[in-house]
Amino acid sequence: MCLPGIEITDVLVRPGGQWVSGVVSDGASAVLRMWAIDGSSLVDLFSDAPSRGRGLSGGVHTWADDGDVVFVATDARGIVEINLRNDVVASERSLAFDVSRSWSTPAIDYMNRTVFAIADWKELWGCEIADGVPFVAHSDSDFALDAIAGVDGSCIVWNRPDMAWTQSAVLLESSTSGVAAQQPRFSRNKESFGFIDDSTGVANVHILGDHIVDPNISIIDHCEHGAPTWGPGQRTWCFNTDGTRVAYTRNEDGYSSLWVFDRVTGSRHRIGQGVHGCVSWEGNTLAALRTGARTPQQVVVYQLSNLLEPRRTVLVRPADARWFEPDIEVELVEPTVEQAPGDVEVPYRLYRAHRPHGGLICWVHGGPNDQWQVTFRSQFTYWLSRGFAIAVVDHRGSSGHGRDFMMSLNGHWGEYDAIDTANVLRHLRSVHGYSSATTIVMGGSAGGLTALNTAVSDASLCAGVVVKYPVVDLVAMLHSDDPFEGHYMPTLIGAENHASERSPHNNAAALRGTPVLVFHGDQDHSVPLIHSEWLRDAITAVGGTIRLEVFVGEGHGFRNPVNIAREFAVTEEFLHALMKNAR
What we know:
By secondary structure, the chain is of the alpha+beta class. 16% of the residues lie in helices and 35% in strands.
């Protein structure tokens, strides 16, 4: 059950509030589908390779105001228009967008005449729906994401050497130094407009004054309302249909909740617990993707005729039914939020197995400017069911704790993150009693670098390291030509001499006594396989123990079920040997 299964992304409420649509994928194919909110029926809208969205995000489709036309971004046909009659598909056609390009976040102007969309994460294009010729609306920025449309098209833009989460702006608005914007959107009636930015030091929702409330309003909060823009279609907030209310999420130390803000009264109402994404609201129907530590992904609908008594219905539950069997549910664990002292207080979340054997996995997220919120992760349940506790570290540079904490890693990637992870391991040992002899550090990509450097800094903290497609050579990363974030590496890493010092393969002697297991795909273009080969050769040369498993055809993240199953089997064999040696 840890293999890829059915996933739903890009959930939207259809205008009228009686249907919810979303992209359903099984890993091999995808379909755009809609479900009646009373659970009575479902309709497949489009199955010719719609784009699939990403996690709790979307950016794949949008509805016209009458609810009888939907536009969907596809893998091979550009933007496709689908016409419905009596809630079933009547016709479809491709708009004249260039099918050789990658399209995302279609958006319709307030007259329902023009569709705007983003091409290749670089340009904003428009096309008149009535057989128009596509035109470039904006191409002067290095990056563009998340098209929106009021009178004209707009989007989020930024330029090198920044990333979207370091400095970005809404198109046509002036860029402010040291401020990152995201998720601009209009209400359905196109009369209200808002966005998220971190001008207060925390990513909060800001709403421009209009006929409903004249002054600009900011929903000031100590909690983040949105995560870094790693891709298109993040939707952690939205307006209701007429713009009088706003739904938004709060990141509460990795946990999350869903709230509604009334613009007229200024009141706030908590609607639900859990991590929500793809938030969408029409009439009294608020829909979202929802998940939690004990909750596999589900599509939920909240009826909000009374904000004091919201009614939640689980509309779709795509996860394997076996996750809800009693013997599995007992292994689903809610973590506690902890703080480790050090140069800074380092947040982490601790999952305790119901049948512990003393083993601990310290897991480091990738990014490094990212965070693993308390969402359902089948791999966690796998290891918890085998007796391991799991600590998830938010080292400096992690998102979810404000701009200053995220930016504090700049110039020190490979250093501060390892220091913070080491301090978490010491806290786990001194306060919770976990033994270093049965502690394993795990991480992928940037998290692999941190895991390895944590062991380099103090080999006594763990019994072994397990990494996937790890960053190993920071000098190589400093000169990366990766089109999305290669330019950001000098900001994260700093001077080249420090990059060399923090590269794990240059510190192989410190890993001589620490067994290392590595997985890497031979088609990885973000962190090429050569990184793991350099690490293998360096550790082998000093007489250390390292095993490298290369998965043919895999890139930055494994998709083949055969390879994923082997990853778990080999890792379990590796951990069993470490635990046996500790006895």
